[in-house]
Amino acid sequence: MDRVEVVVAHAERATLRVGDVFLKVDADADRVDAEVEAMSLAPVPTPEILWREPPVLAIAAVPGQTLGRLGGPSTGSPAAWAAAGAAIRQVHEAPLPSRLGRAGRSSTDLAAEIGAECEALVAGGLLPAELVSRCRRVCEAVLRPWAPSFTHGDLQIAHVFLDGNAVTGIIDWSEAGRGDALYDLATFTLGHRDQLGHVLAGYGSGTDLDVIRGWWAVRSLLAIRWLVQHGFDPFLPGCEVDMLKSLA
């Protein structure tokens, strides 16, 4: 082994790759507990846990390729996107985990968080007030009653692997728990809205496009300052700021 790859690193956690082994370093033991529980319950392929020595969790790499990346071109056939949608549906229909996940915030708490974040984005000069105001109205669609599902909580396109039209693994379950299923669908298609129809063809009924659009806006608004503070760029083409502009 001649190199260690830093996959992601910020103040909350870091992930390293050494050959076919990923080492996840996370000082929050509860979050790691939730990830291990979620992977044991998920009815879809997940990474094999090799060992755990807090604060490190070692997991095996999963085979296959992703369908693209945020800010980049999407790949894969319509059937592959539909297969991902079907796998997401399997997760959502599984028995509920014990933990309340990222997608499980109450409407009251979420509305307060959106409001505070919108004010901070404008006050800090990151986004113009008119854009924030328009996108905040789009967010309102998510503030409605919903039945809890088993949600991944951070279902970025980079976290779902396929070989052809077969899902070979879904990774990074640290935000999993009970939550709003449409949050996962919005997260998976963020930046790839042209693939939403194919994903929903595999996912099936029970979706609301206005709510998915609302979650696109919520996730983008809530992510921008965090991304900037942790060395990422939400202003890159096809990323969060472009998503907000398209919704406005």
Question: What can you see in these coordinates?
Answer:
The chain is built from 8 helices and 9 strands. The radius of gyration is 18 Å and the shape is globular. It has one domain (63-247): Aminoglycoside 3'-phosphotransferase, Chain: A, domain 2. The chain is α+β, with helices and mostly antiparallel strands and 248 residues long.
Helix content: 40-55%
**Physical arrangement of strands within the biggest beta sheet:** 1-2-3-5-4
Number of strands: 9
CATH superfamily: Aminoglycoside phosphotransferase (APH), C-terminal lobe
Order of secondary-structure elements = EEEHEEHHHEEEEHHHH
Average predicted local confidence, pLDDT: 94
* Spatial extent as radius of gyration: 18 Å
Q: Low-confidence runs (pLDDT<50, min 5 residues)?
A: none
> What fraction of residues sit in β-strands?
15-25%
Second CATH tier, the architecture: Alpha-Beta Complex
Number of helices: 8
SSE class: alpha+beta
* CATH topology description: Aminoglycoside 3'-phosphotransferase, Chain: A, domain 2
The top-level CATH class is Alpha Beta
